[in-house]
Specification:
Layout (H helix, E strand, L loop, with lengths): L3 H4 L4 E5 H8 L4 H7 L5 E6 L3 E6 L4 E5 L11 H14 L4 H9 L25
Parallel strand pairs: 1-2
Antiparallel strand pairs: 2-3, 3-4
Length: 127
């Protein structure tokens, strides 16, 4: 289990509601935001139901999960995090990056953020 002070030092926290309930005593996104005020973005995944993004300023966006037949859930959370980070690297704002993972491509209209991608998340350039 990652200690709460360490989680609060992160720029981005992605966790399942069930994991959060075990580690921090709640899986509720708003309660988690009050426990972790420092990260720029907090994402709480609620299994196959939805993912909620809570920004530092309190802006909250909930995206429903794709309606798919789950054959094997192992790695689903890692795949979500990878898809989210790929969206951020492409310059999507956090809610749109989350939607890029949870929405079918034909329904997705993802606005770009007005600022450059986070410098720590920029892909390295070959030398």
């Amino acid at each position: 289990m990652v200690p709460r002070p360490l989680l609060d030092e992160a720029d981005l926290v992605v966790m399942g509601a069930d994991e959060a309930a075990l580690a921090l005593g709640t899986g509720d996104p708003r309660e988690l935001r009050s426990l972790l005020p420092s990260p720029a973005t907090l994402i709480v995944k609620d299994a196959e139901h939805h993912a909620t993004t809570v920004e530092r300023d309190g802006t909250t966006t909930t995206e429903p999960s794709l309606d798919v037949h789950i054959v094997e859930p192992t790695g689903a959370g890692d795949a979500f995090a990878a898809g989210y980070l790929a969206g951020v690297l492409r310059g999507l704002a956090p809610p749109a990056a989350s939607a890029s993972v949870t929405s079918p491509p034909q329904r997705l209209s993802a606005p770009r953020t007005t600022s450059a991608p986070h410098p720590r998340l920029r892909p390295s350039r070959p030398s």
